[in-house]
Each structure stands twice: as structure tokens, then as C-alpha cells.
Amino acid sequence: MESLERSSAVIDLGKRLVTQLKLGDDEPAQWMAHALAERIKDAENAPPEKRVAAQSSCAELVFQLWERRYSLPTQLRPLKSLEPLLRTLNSLDTTSGPRFRFMQERPADMKVDEGVEKTLDLAMKLDDAARILVQYFLATAAEQASEETQPWIQSAIDAGADVSLEVRVVRFVDSGLDRSSEAAKMAKEALNDKIQKLEVFASLAAALAKDLRAKHGLLTDEADDAEPNDE
After folding, report:
1. Any domain includes 171
2. I need a surface site. Which of 123, 139, 168, 230 has the fewest CB within 10 A?
3. Is 231 within a domain?
4. Among the three residues 31, 55, 76, which one is the final residue of a domain in this structure?
5. What is the pLDDT of residues 36-74, one digit of tens each?
6. Do 108 and 184 fall into the same domain?
7. How many domains does the chain divide into?
8. What contacts 203, CB < 8 A, 6 or more positions away?
């Protein structure tokens, strides 16, 4: 039964690919769509003694095309809405170390001047808040993109195709939007912690903006004083 269901799922994914490849006027894509449609037809109509071979041949082409899902012509890529997000996740290297952390925690035994320590602590708080903002907005974008591509992803999963890249996006959505917490209490505490860090960020940003405005005004006054008098 499982083999029959898997074979049916592979054919369903193949039909999706055929429809997708026919969307444009790309000649190689049209040829691939025709070839795949023929194999699907053979797999569905082959006599019992030839059915296994026909299904295997169909599955082979389906998986080959799926592996090339990101190298098809742009307008024909079934998961093209995920591509900008995947590039961003790769550029941020979310798989190694603390996510999006621009600064590293200093060793606990490192002694620094009290004033310097206070400034560094503020910098770390800003780093925490910036990391939260980056993760949240990327997770929101990932959620929107994954909604568009969910039917494709589910079809590929059912067929047993490789979806490791796409699953990475789904997991990122869950972690970024606090859906991975098993207990509501844990999720609430995590959310409160994020809120506090963002409030600190807003306060520090406002103070910094005020300081920069003051410096800007001072520099403007100095520049005015330095201008030569034509009289």
C-alpha cells in the first residue's frame, strides 16, 4: 500500500511539473514537459508486467527535474518565491553560531574598566535587539513565501523528493515566530524577553539620535562661524 501511495504521489508531483514547465515558451522546457507527460502516461497505463519499470522510469525523470528546480528558467521555477529568502539565510549563515550575532560574548574572566564595561553591555543589548528584529522580519517573509509554495513542498514530501532547503525555511518560520515552543508558558516568557530587549533598543536608539542631532547642530554652528565674511 505504501509503495502504491508513493508511486501515486510521484505521479502527482510529475503532473505539477508538467503544468509548470508548460507555462512559458521555453523550447527545452516544453520538450521536458512532453517527455515527462509521456512517462506519466506510460506509468498510469502500463500493463501489470511492465508497470514497475514504467513507474521507475517516470520517477527517475520526476526526481531529476525536481533536483533542477532552482536552475530552470526563472519564470518556470516552482519555488522562485523562496529564492531571495534562501540567499539571505545563506548570507547570514544561520546554521553556525548564535543567529545573526554581530558581536561575540567576551570571556567572563576578562577585566575591563567600569565605564568601558557599561558601554560594551549597552552594545551587546543593541546587538541582541537587532538580532531579534532581523530574525522576526525574515521569519515573517519566510512565512509569506512558504504559504505560496506549501502545495509544492507537501507534494514533494509525499513523493519522497529532497526538500532539505525548503524544510530549512519552514523551521526558520517556526523558530522566528515562536511556534516551536511546546509550552505556552515558555513561548510567553520568550516573547516577554524579546519585548524587553526591543524596548531597551528603542530607548537607546532615541538617546543616540538625540545625541547625534546635538552634535549635528554643534557642527553646523561651527561651520557657520567659520564661513568668511564678505563684508
Report:
1. yes
2. 230
3. no
4. 76
5. 999 999 999 999 999 999 999 999 999 999 999 999 998
6. yes
7. 2
8. none
Q: State how far the alpha carbon of 71 is from the alpha carbons of 31, 62, 123, in Å.
A: 16, 15, 42
At 29 the pLDDT is: 92
Of 2, 15, 28, nearest in space to 152 by CA: 15
| 11: in domain | yes
CA 13 – CA 229 distance, rounded (Å): 78
Which three cell numbers mark 139?
A: 521569519
Indicate whether 96 and 210 sit together in one domain. Answer: yes
**Helix H segments across 46-183?**
48-67, 83-92, 114-159, 164-176
- Which of 43, 76, 109 corresponds to the end of one domain? 76
Q: Which residues contact 7 (CB under 8 A, 6 or more apart)?
A: 43, 55, 59
Stretch (H or E) spanning 45: helix 27-45
Average pLDDT, rounded, for the chain: 77
184, 113: one domain = yes
Is the CB of residue 142 less than 8 Å from the CB of residue 173? yes
Q: In this structure, are 131 and 162 located in the same domain?
A: yes
pLDDT tier for residue 178 given thresholds of 50, 70 and 90: low
Of 200, 148, 151, 144, which is closest to residue 177 (Cα–Cα)? 144
Q: Give the CA distances from residue 105 to residues 53, 120, 200, in Å, rounded to whole numbers and listed in that order.
A: 58, 10, 18
